[in-house]
Batch of 2 targets.
Target 1
Amino acid sequence: MSGGGWGRGLRHARLQRILAVAAIGAAVALPVVLVSVGGGVSSHELHALQTSGYQLVVSAPGNHGVEDAHNLTRAILAIGGVAQASPVLSIAVDAFDAGGNVSPVLAEGIVPAAFTATLGPTDGSLFPTPLPLGDPNDTTHFANGTYRGSATDDVVVSIPFAHEFHVKVGGTLRLAADDNLSAAVPFLVTATFGPPITFLEPAAAYALLLPLSDLQTLSGYASGPGTIVPDAADSIEVAVAPSIADDAGALAAVAAAISALVPSYSVSTLSQEVSALESASAVLTGFYLALSSVGIAVGVIFLALVLLRRVETDRRSIGIRRALGVPGRSVAAGIVADGALLAVGGATAGVIGGVTLVLGLARWATAEVQEAAQLATFPPVLLGEIVAAIVLLSLAASAVAVRAALRVQIVEALR
Amino acid sequence: MNGNGVPAIVLAQVDRTYGGSGPEAVHALRGATVSIAPGEFVSVEGPSGCGKTTLLNLLGLLDAPTAGSLSWDGVPVGQRSDRERARMRLERVGFIFQRFYLLPTLTARENVELPMQARGVPRATRRDRARALLAEVGLSGRERAYPHQLSGGEEQRVAIARALANGPGLLLADEPTGELDSTNTRAILDLLIRVRAERSATLVLVTHNPTVAARARRHLTMQDGRIVGDVREA
């Protein structure tokens, strides 16, 4: 064989190998991204649930479906064993900066004292105590459902949002239900909350905390003509007395008492929520892996084709080796080793690519994706299992090529 | 088998047909009957397409007869498994091809090491032996050259060194000088005859070059797949 021909053959073979590694890498990167981000979000939610300061959650069907939230909260507080009840309403509003630029942001309406009392130790450290939102029990503005009392118009902003939106404590932030600056209400920024900005700045937990009644009137979920749901909330988080917090029977009794107040609402214990979330997380992980299996199958088929092509191009070399008496198992071992090497290379590239992609998403993607990507976890065992699975599948791909290699007729290969 | 592992080979009424039994069948070998004793130097002569290479492939267990019997040391080769025949090739046969058939991605030394590696010879031992064999065929200092960096004569020397790697008793050379000039032809032939003599090996050499064939002590002549002449020199 001439030097030029040999060189061209080598380059061609190298290109095939690079493409095989790239195909497997792309196939592996997908589950790495899906599982790491999905798992990270799930474990974050689980951690939040497991470290929260409440044990029961009252929710209702529909959008912001808890009605008459202030009075229902009072009624729940009157039940024996209940220590605190905190209604929460989460709604996206528009925030305007000093220049009039608008940005959608998620706001939570809360009753400050109740909210603080139902925070767990982890979350509690992220907020100033007491929350500087003027009316601790949100009674003045609410005014027994009339909303005629004076609003505090105070807001507490997350540190990442303050950083991103150039908002300072003592400054003014204008908020509106929609993209209408003339309808925006000025709020006084009284404090910031949340974790400090990490190396992945800016973090995307763009959140505002303001009194429940303020958010209700701002978004049209207060009582009165034209409101969508009167005195609305998404849920009411209920903390029981510490003496019964770990007593499943007592918790069930409290839940039953709440259900008696609002039979059509759902009252779930936190352990049920955790269990449901764990189940959903397991289902999602399975779904992600099933979805990824399509890409992995394509990658492995591509690997099999590359190995088959190699057998075809190395037909003469295989014939020479067999003619010299090299055992078939040695020829097979060479192909299997080559397949495994390509698979390990591709899987490693896929893991690195997937992790890099997640880090990139955490830095440069849209706010929602950033938030999810920042929560991503990369469990080494799972990543190792993905690589191991790819290597095992490469053995199946190699088997096809091995079969072809062992069927090479020596005399024909040497012609 | 004699004491040096040199096989006694007997072909009896051997046919080799390619392409099935229909009208398109090619009868490469018809009723070939010949015995080759250990240590003989046999040339196989005849025009192109007369079945010389097919005969050599059968002798070296690269191929199997479609009829008749082939035995080594009195044992029919048809009774051997593929694995056993591969092992016999590895340990007892040295092939030298017209087109050398060196592996292009291996150096000269690595090509020579290949049969020893397949036999499980320790790395250091096979490296030393490969160096010695390359020196024996006159290629000292060329151990690290790749086949495309060698001349035709040098490539064939490497192929001879490779054929000798496991100390075989049977050397099969298919037109070993067919692609070489006259100077290299003489040198390669001298080399083959010398190593055969030193090892008391059997050498079966296919050629249609009368000058080359003249160096053998026994001459098989083939025509249309048949052995039509078998002459031993006194």
Target 2
Amino acid sequence: MNETLEQVIASLRERFGEAVEDVVEFRGDVVVTVARDSIVTVVEYLRDHPFCPFPLCEDVFGIDQFTRKKRFEVNYHFFSVLKKVRIHLKVRVDEDDASVPSITGVFPGAGWYEREAYDMIGVHFPGHKDLRRMYMTEDFEYHPLRKDFPLMGVPGSIPLPKRG
Amino acid sequence: MSSQAHDGDFFNAPVMTASLPPKEKRTKLLQALLDMDPDISFDDPLENDMILNMGPSHPATHGVLRILLRLDGETIVSAMPELGYLHRGYEKIAENETYHEFITHTDRLDYLQPVHNNVGYILAVEKLLGIEAPPRAQYIRTLLAELARISSHLVGFGVMAMDVGAMTLLLWCFREREKIHDIYDLVIGARFTTSYTRIGGVAQDITDEGLAAIRAFIDQFPERLNEGERLLNRNRIFFDRCRGTGIMTAEQALAWGFTGPNLRGSGVAHDLRRDQPYLVYNDLDFDVITENECDSLSRYYVRLREMKESVKIVLQCMDKIPAGPVHAHEPKKVLPRKERIYTRMEELIHDFMIVNFGVNPPSGEVYHAIESSKGQLGFYIVSRGEGHPWRLKIRSPSFCNLQALPVLLKGHLLSDILAVLGSIDPVMGEADK
């Protein structure tokens, strides 16, 4: 692991303690699993980090793990323009309570990413001011990137336009 | 507003919102537009609000972008872009195809520069597999990716000029772009849907004829570019329309997730080719272009100067390209050559396994991002050890850059949309995935 990143994770552990649930490194990518309730404060802390600030929120998206106990995951990428390192955060949520606090208050640019995650996976982001669907039509009922949504779509789910 | 001079309610109507459908019948898009905080006011005698729909089929929206505008006279009070008219669900398709099969779909993401998408995707897959292509393949990828950058910037450059009225430049740019696609035809065998990369290498080696064609193009290109530049750089109309429109400060640009030429046009020297070198960019000498004016014009300058840097990179690649194989020696991961499949048992078995079940990478999650001509193009792959990805997330730069459009347009005139949109240079194939 990159030395700077090690120090960042040490500082995260020191500051947030139990909220940093897990740190996984695979092929040089570091994914830090964070408790749902503290995601906004962690993101805010990372943005204004004392020696390695992450001012660029690259992406937010959802993953449907389907067979795991906590079904949905929301991933975040942050890049430090100063130190040239990237960190990934992850929040795991249950299917019955699929909501993660919105980070749009910290990064306004996360707005569309969260809309896309809501549209595709169906995770809600309380605190988002404009949580509409991103790609699908407004009256679409399903979330297409869920694993139980068939590849060919649901017949009749998008009505054809009426004639005349 | 008083209007004794006029009879009837037409001029008396305070805002046109009176003629809008009632709240429960409005679409969510329209309601979102109306809810946006209109904190600018104009003391205009002809004050009236107007909702105007632009697109999705509009010649200046670079594809199928729809923008709902709220106008005060000719001034934009708020704007709300609407995406999804080109949504083809590539992330869903990726979950149902092997890693090799998905290469062809990456061509259709950013269709102005398919090689970048091929390279970005394949580097993520190779990172997941833990293999690396041999040096010659890396150089070929770099070479063609930089040609793709020129080709894509030529469109951004020409279309932006056309949108503000300079038609000639577009034709000149497309003439040069045509030459690049002729080179692709020669080297790759396809002009647009290249699908050139393979896991652990490239589809086929580049020939001396192909290198000579690239050399011939690069030798004459800087002069052609200068000609185009001379058309615009003393053009008062172009300058007046682009200077000072679409202002995005460095802090704003970072907060809204700008990357690529748009971010560098705001003065932030962030370039993944330099910051997290991939392919062979570590061995090459080039500058990261930044402009500090933060407006449409500086984004235009960044693209223009980046094309010159790309010429430098291409020339260095041509000089440094080593001899050797273009496929990694990883029999269980890399597709074997056709002639060996027909003559050897082992290769036949590997080919059967790779084509039917895919390469089985270890379980894990990787992210790899490259600096495409629009910005940061990243692929996040979640693998469960199967032949196809469990989840593939495409981080497309155009999508993220478009998001700041309401901020860029606010307070500008209606006709400035074209200059601002051209300077962001979005491609809807990528934004909609």
